[in-house]
Amino acid sequence: MKQKHYVIGNWKLYLDREKSIEHAIAIEKNKSIVSSDALEIVVCPSHVNLDKISGINKSVSLGAQDCGFENSGAHTGQVSPDDLVSIGCEYVIIGHSERRYQLGETDDVINRKIIAALKSGLVPIVCFGETFEANEKGISGEFVKNQIKSAFEGVSLEDNQRVIVAYEPVWAIYPSKHVVTTQHVHEMVEIIHKTCSPVLGGAYSYCVVYGGSVTGENVANFIDLPGINGVLPGHASTDSSEFAKIIAIVNDML
Ligand code: PGA
């Protein structure tokens, strides 16, 4: 059986409520943007818009951009993973670099969120990637290996549980002008597989996607690489025609 591919649109905080709704309607109207057995398309709007977008987007899956590590209790501002499931989310992004570096989210918090998300039945899309400094020092592999080991500490996947591992070099995320080479992504993805497979188990319990300034222009280069099962565009996913272009190219390559 061929492994499924993913195109996961991370809308970040680019779209306000009105624009999120407009974008969701445009996606729903475009008959070429439909999940299939071979390609799962996921959209990740901001938390406050999830419920609304859940009612609009039926041909793609829904993901949140973060979740809390508990379902109830004294946790001001946290979002319950169970509640995300009840409004139609199947996926949740965890450990995005913008949360790690803008909000100081630690490896320990990320680990707790992964465990909570899995328990609620969500598929965690866990983000890993080295900083600009780590890359300059030539320690990208070590950096990402350590992130992975901490994130999945004590995580053991049951038969029906899956994880998506997103390799997102921080220095290549839009609006950065630094361009990552496919050779670098290739080498990092090999390291990621070597680190993840003993921890997460066989090939069907996890897959690796690439994120960092993915566009219709460059998506084919990443999908072409061995060990990559999809992409996680951020900025480009908030433009309906660019998002459609990325999906069309990935579909053509499957
Ligand atoms: P980008 O974002 O495509 O805008 O670089 C990707 C991500 O950070 O998830």
Describe the structure.
This protein is α/β, with parallel strands linked by helices and 254 residues long. It has one domain: Alpha-Beta Barrel (TIM Barrel). Helices cover 42% and strands 16% of the residues. The chain is built from 10 helices and 8 strands. An 8-stranded parallel β-sheet has the order 7-6-5-4-3-2-1-8. Helix 1 (17-29) runs parallel beside helix 2 (47-56). The protein is globular. The chain starts with a strand and ends with a helix. 2-phosphoglycolic acid is lined by residues 10, 168, 173-174, 211-214, 232-236. 2-phosphoglycolic acid binds at residues 10, 168, 173-174, 211-214, 232-236.
Question: What can be said about this structure in brief?
Answer:
The protein contains ten helices and eight strands. The chain is an alpha/beta fold and 254 residues long. It binds 2-phosphoglycolic acid (PGA).
